[in-house]
Amino acid sequence: DIQMTQSPSTLSASLGDTVTITCRASQSIDSWLAWYQQKPGKAPMLLIYKASTLQSGVSSRFSGRGSGTEFTLTISSLQPDDFATYYCQQYHSPWTFGHGTRVDVK
Amino acid sequence: QVQLQESGPGLVKPSQTLSLTCTVSGGSISNVDAYWNWFRQFPGEGPEWIGYIYYNGNTDYSPSLKSRVSMSVDTSKSHFSLRLTSVTAADTAVYYCARAQWSTLGWIIQHWGQGTLVTVSS
Prior knowledge:
Chain A is built from no helices and 11 strands. By secondary structure, chain A is mainly β.
């Protein structure tokens, strides 16, 4: 199975900050990577797929980059609704997720 | 708008079989681009993919669970189901069903159920 490693595990930030989360794959996954946001008690919400394609309806403050084994999710101008946990997921079978990055209030 | 809803027992005894159903509304379960998935999530961890089933019954299961998992689909009732046998406390988790759509841009997993907590305990 392909292992997905996210860093940091927790990120403290203030409103208006720009933050970047990193996800590394244990082997090349080309651009087959998605990012999700999850809030407590809720299902994951798709933000980005194929590494950099923004899901319809998602704010353009979210952006994704990368290919191969290293990927980033950047959230610009952090808003109150952005404080949540973020997961990366690769989709070579079996699909696997990172352990998550919690973005909380500094 | 596609909606998914999980249903099934919230408590299962050790060694028994966990059975969940996901009812699909707002879209056809027979959509040729749609693959119907089960995930689970343990506290503080990322989701774990269990597997998917296509409307014609084709399946793909995670190798780590393959020996205990089976999925089925009932297109007439617009639902699909998960069975996980020989459960232990380690199978206690929130279980989600989700729709994955294949496109040239890869898998798009946009639609999820709300999740259901299944506890394995005597």
